[in-house]
Amino acid sequence: MAGPLQLTFVNYKKDSYIVVEGKTGADRFFIIRQGKVRISKDLEVVEEEGGNVLGPGDFFGVVSTMSSHSQIETAQALTDVTLISVMKEQYGQLIQNNTSVAMKIILQFSKRMRYLDEALTKLTLKNNALENPSHLFKVAEYYTRQSQYNQAFYAYHQYIKYCPGGEFVNQARERMMKIGPYAKAVKLDYRPDEFNRTYPKESMIFSEGEPGDELFIIQKGSVKIAKIVDNNEVLLAVLKTGDIFGEMALLESKPRAACAVAYEDCHVMAVNKVNFERMVGTQPQIVSRLTTLLAERIWFIYKQLANTLIVDPMGRMYDALLIQLEKNRAPINAAPYSFDFGPKELVNMVGIPQQEGVLVLRKLMENRKIQIVKDKDKDRIYSMDVSDIAKQTEFYRKMQKIEKARREGIGH
Asked: How is domain 135-288 classified at the CATH fold level?
């Protein structure tokens, strides 16, 4: 049983800084009891939905605390404020004692995720695929061309189900007849009350573009999350036992943004909206895990958005490398580090056209502390001194600030 929750009240005078962007080691977040707090960022990428001024009942510092990453924003007291300080290890107890606060945090997180995701999409135009059921036909066609008939059969089936009057329905039916004999591991429909599900290897759990109202928790096995971009399958993640996926469709009632495929035989638990709200009060460890997962994703999207604002492409490359180091919690010291991607992926990460990317890479390789190494027929970027990447990033960020100040000076 959860004991009484000992929360601390803290007071800050007007104009005091409560959290500072870039600081590491966040171990608590704050809920405002009285007063107003302004949130700001070094690089203001997009205006926060709902504005940058927070009042009673609002919270801040949750993303950095729950993801154990550096602070992504600065919080300053606009008036004298009284805050409730919640230590990271108290979060599970807070969920049990105050379900409505936990639901508020999770729903605001998912809203923020959607908002930031859309901002990133607009800025990079990397994903201009429409996430609606008609997209299912394109997904099915892609997998047919790759002779991945389980995934194709599933996507055709869902296309017919959700777009019964769609222009490609007859084609989808014909294709299903053709590939049916080769589509062995296909699970098409489960009853809503079947919460424990088994998926054979290579079967599709859901496809990008289809509506969804469940999240999944992996009980055993692993699941591949992928997206079809520019006629290529982009691997986003391989998830393992204990991981949660599909939460955005459940929380935001949005179509699926990616495909989930059983990477090996797997057992999952499906959670719908009604069960989810019940779970918030009874299974704090799962809700805590979900909050951490959303915090991780928000932190990463913020960093990607800030990266798009760095004008110098070389600065963007160094910054992208530093983001990956922070994401993987590599200590920023003079030690070597091998990234799990190569130069081509780095160019894609920062959204530079390939031709320009080749020139910038050439310049990057003039830094003797960065090399490209071959590993199992795959090129990897290798840094002989991680601290140098942090120094270089800091240099380019400083130059950006000086240039911005100079431009603003000219404008006055």
From this structure: Jelly Rolls (2.60.120)
